Amino acid sequence: MSTSSEPPRHSRKQAVIVSAAVLAILASAVWIYWFEFGSQKQNIDLHHAVGQVMAEETAHVVGQTGKLVLITLDHRTAPELKLQTDAFEKRLKALGGITIKELIVLDAKDNPKYRPGAGLSAKRFLKIARKHSSVDAIVSFVGAPELTDQELTELKTVPKFIAEAHSPEKLVHLLEKKILLSAIVPRFEFPAPGPRKPETSRQWFDRYFQILSPETALVKGDDAP
């Protein structure tokens, strides 16, 4: 009787998650170094690029028209988020009829967990989702929560969810459940596409970030070697 040497799907998926976690840590270290020590002009270009791609992903998920809730931090706490959200709003306006119904500004209260791509708790997300169940999307510049199946069953309806996040491996559950439909994360797949010295906004984005979706998450989980 012949036996297959192919590892089970669960093992392949776990290997992908572990690899993504290690690479995400390295990518986050590069990301932190870049924003701490990179030139101001380059930082501005990159933050603008993140905001623009967030808008494009929102339009891709929502369509030409719709209303959304935007979640961010107080710009005095995270000034880089002002660059991102300003670019997001400008690009969103240029793309069509999607409007921001409500802007939710979280108060970090000097808590280091709140930063671009991180800080949104499950409790806060569930509260926002319940209150704004009629909007077309929730867009978070402060990460995505880790939700249990029980917490998900508490929601009757969930608006489409787009987020900037730092930890790809923590997004797998939300992506598989198709709660999170698009996530912008620090790049963990290399080599990065495009030139080593970016010139366009998209080249800046692709150099340091990438996009995850339910489709790419399933591909990585099912087809990883």
Explain this structure.
- This protein has 225 residues and is of the alpha/beta class.
- It has one domain: Response regulator (Rossmann fold), CATH 3.40.50.
- Helix content is 48%, strand content 17%.
- It has 8 helices and 6 strands; from the N terminus they run ααβαβαβαβαβαβα.
- It has helices spanning 9-37, 40-62, 79-95, 122-131, 149-153, 172-176, 201-208, 214-223; strands spanning 65-73, 97-106, 137-140, 160-164, 180-186, 209-212.
- It has a 6-stranded mixed beta sheet.
- Helix 2 crosses helix 7 (201-208).
- The chain is globular.
Write the element-wise H/E pattern from the N-terminal end onward: HHEHEHEHEHEHEH
CATH superfamily (homologous) name: Response regulator
Structural class based on helices, strands and sheet pairing:
alpha/beta
CA-based shape? globular
Integer count of domains: 1
Per CATH, the architecture is 3-Layer(aba) Sandwich
Total strands? 6
Strand order within the widest sheet? 2-1-3-4-5-6
What characterizes the major β-sheet? 6 strands, mixed
Topology (elements, then pairings):
Blueprint: H1 9-37, H2 40-62, E1 65-73, H3 79-95, E2 97-106, H4 122-131, E3 137-140, H5 149-153, E4 160-164, H6 172-176, E5 180-186, H7 201-208, E6 209-212, H8 214-223
Parallel strand pairs: 1-2, 1-3, 3-4, 4-5
Antiparallel strand pairs: 5-6
Helix pairs in contact: 1-8, 2-3, 2-7
